[in-house]
Amino acid sequence: MKLNRRSFVKWASLSPAIALPMISCASSENEAESKKMDGVKPLNLNIQSISREERLSRIAKAQQLMQEQKIDALFLEPGTSMKYFLDFDFFLSERMVAAVIPAKGDIAYICPGFEQDKVEELVKFANKVLTWEEHESPYALTAKLLRDIGTPNQKVAIEERCRFFLYDGIKSETARINFVNGDGVTAGCRVFKSPAEIALMQAANTATLEAYKILFDSLYEGMNQYDFRDIASEAHRKLGFSGSIGANFGEWSAFPHGSSKTQTLKPGDIVLADGGCTVEGYKSDISRTIVFGEHNDRQKEVWDVVKEAQTAAFELAKQPGTTCEQMDAAARAVIDQAGFGPDYKYFSHRLGHGIGMDGHEWTNLVRGNDTPLQAGMCFSNEPGIYIVGEFGVRLEDCFYMTENGPQYFTQPSPSIDKAFA
Question: Where are the beta strands (DSSP E) in 208-347?
Answer without folding.
Answer: 242-249, 269-279, 282-283, 286-292
